[in-house]
Design a protein that fits this description.
229 residues, mainly beta, 2 helices, disordered N terminus
Length: 229
Amino acid sequence: MSKTVLLAAAAAFALTAGGASAAQRPAIGAHGNTPVGVFHVAKGAKMLYNQNSGTNGEGVVSQNFTSGSFSPTYNAAGADDFVVPKKATWTVTEVDVSGLYFNGYGPATSENVTFYANSNNLPGKAVKGGTFTNLKGKDSSGSFTISLGKKGVKLKSGTYWVSVVANCSFEGGCGEWGWDETTAIHGNNAVWQNPDGGFGVGCTTWTEVGTCIGYNGDFAFDLQGKAKK
């Protein structure tokens, strides 16, 4: 990506997280040393995967805009990969993500969680039974504890991607939700897409997040549930 586009992307970041803004259009993310959320393992579950630590101070929008004229043009999604070990089967029943609100204070109406198969080190097809919409997770200032129900999603060994998208009205107080980036890269780089191109940085299909916004990192999340070998 050219330097000009990267600068344009950086300029589209809100300067601070949280407070209400008079912005006329959504920002691609927010600067701010936001703390990573603290999550507890659900009763009867175990921590299956955890990269919910550390932050590079950037929250990247991953949101469906549910009011005004910003949907679908600005709708965007982030995703990150994880690996189920060889000879193991995971039943994921909870997804925890660290995030923040900006250009408003939230809360999101609900969250969508989608698990994707790996395709050439990018999200491929959605996993069977791995699409969850309009979930109402526990919201702690933009960090979500999202239950997938007792059934959850069953994943055999291999590489997968998980995407979390907040349903949030830009107008009317919710503002925007940003998914925290971490300082360390685990496996493949996190990816992001803005299919209708409202942010003007390209990345209308899954693209490494650093290419899209100029700030490389992974997304902060963990997975809980049960494992069998």
